[in-house]
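Quarterly update from the structural biology core.
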Amino acid sequence: MRFIPLLTISLMLLLLTSPKKAQGLGVTDSLFNLLEATQNDSVKVNLLNDIAVHFYTRDYQEILHYAKQAEQLARHLGDEKNLSISLNSMGFAYWQMGNYETAMLYFRKAIDGNKDLKNKNVLADTYDYMGITYDQQGKDSLALAHLLMSLQIRENLGDKKKQAESFNNLCGFYWERQNFGEAMHYLQKKLTIDEELGNTEGMAMSYANFAANLYGIGNFDKALVYYNKSLKIYLEAGNKRHTATLYNNIGTLYTELGKYDEGIAYLSKALKLRKESNNRVGYAGTLQGMSEAVFASSNNYPKAIRQCKEALEIAKDLGAAHVVIATYQSMYNISKKSNHFEDALHYLELRNTIKDSITNETQRKQLTEMQVKYETQKKERKLQFMEQEKKILIQGNQLKEFRLYLLIAGIVLLLIASIFVVRKLRGSLKTAHDEKRQVEEELFFKNKELENFALRIVEKNEFLKELKSKLANLPKQPKNSVEIREISNAIKLNLYLDSDRRQLQMRIDQVHQTFISKLTKRFPKLTKSNKRLCSLLVLELSSKDIATILNITPASVKISRNRLRKALALDSHANIAQFLITL
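Predicted structure, tokenized:
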């Protein structure tokens, strides 16, 4: 079974705002009647935000219309809570329309508007929105950090319903990365709370996500049962956004089962709903899935590629990196199966280039995120200090002239100072621990990046060799023999170019500077070839992969290993890779 990206089989991520959203079966006339009748601005700003929330699954332009009015009124009243809620709503609308940069702008404004961090539940909503937006942009570390910050606030508040929604979003995060065990862990936590609270729509969400996880492990029949249970609830609720997602998922599942007519029918329903609701990201994702279904059904290469290009144009315009990557992957799959090998290689290289650029951007954003965390913690500490100072002043006023009270006040101040010092020390230790863990995580991800880069070189070289072999087996006709020979020579030349290997070595030198330094200091007589082999062995690559990267035979790799073993003074049974890792 092949794994289809989440944009095709997608978990329904809950974007959290107020209880009215979860209950929403449409905007009631009573809200509009109350809005028209009231003259109280404090009541009016709450009603405007409630109306905006009721449009969350229906009309994004209406969200902007009412949330903008709420924002203006909240600023006039100095109402920080309703100001943050209205900014969250506008950010949500832009998120749904695929305008991620504008969405993030409003989410950051919501945090700024929540100056004293008093409205913890609204702050948790903002972090949740930002986490899901980062996820859509392919910024994994920032996405997970914000989702976990949101969950922590909700656990501290004891809000079970909000915790369930956080568990759902964490389930979606891990599902997209094919970590089904962790996804099911969070999903089970969510379902337990939904059943405890009797939350019907929450249970529908859990059914859909159980189906997605069952799909991920290949249990298609059971997945279809859960999808249909969820679809029934959302159709009755009139929830177009989640209904479109379910149509999309069921269509992809039928395509996977080889039932192409049913699959295309459901995908067409999803396209229609997503177009009606102006969900351009969802529309592009479904279109990408439709291209694979069309090709599998009819082998219509031009139509499938045309649909991919339309999806690609929308995704690039919106900056939806995950859709761009998945679409290039589909174009690679379709071109390869159609024997358009040159196009396939081109799409594969474009896909890999986008993935590499996302990795670099994520590292830059992590530094910015650390600064944001620092400023947030600084505000919280300032608030705590002000509260403590207030208590001390009250106690000082009560002590007056009595020595006994003065003595008690001194003891209290000493205890508070001691607690402050202990907390500061604990905070310093925690910060040091977090920084150490971050460095270890960064090193782990950089090692994974090196390994993936090396494997892409292997994949590229094997693909070129396969292509060269197929060219060699083509009938040699006079009219195309010269072109075939030129293509074959170009492939051969590409196989022997050192640019990929030099780039890999340069990345290894950057990531493993300490390792190379230790190796050179301990074994100064090692040759340049020895050090290159050591760098590849540390990545735990097989002899076959090393041979492909260096464009030599596995036998030559074995000879090089034996020479390296002697240079390192290891016996014949020692594991060279393990020795180097523990160096």
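Residues 1-26 have pLDDT under 50 and may be disordered.
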